[in-house]
């Protein structure tokens, strides 16, 4: 694994299930546009 990985990956890894679900929904909504 690369020593320097995307900050968002670190955020997701440390996020709670509720925060992660909310984040995923946001990304999916953004990708629609």
- Strand count: 0
Which structural category do the helix and sheet elements fall into?
Answer: mainly alpha
Query: Number of folding domains?
Result: 1
| Broad shape | flat
Mean pLDDT, as a whole number?
77
Number of helices: 2
H and E order:
HH
Largest sheet: none
**What's the alpha carbon Rg, rounded to whole Å?**
11 Å
Helix percentage: over 70%
Distance between the termini: 31 Å
Percentage of β-strand residues = under 5%
Describe the overall structure:
By secondary structure, this protein is mainly α. It is built from two helices and no strands. The relative contact order is 0.12.
SSE diagram, text form:
Layout: H1 7-14, H2 17-32
Which key terms come to mind for this protein?
single chain, 33 residues, mainly alpha, 2 helices, flat
Question: Care to give the gist of this entry?
Answer:
The chain is an all-alpha fold. It has helices at residues 7-14, 17-32.
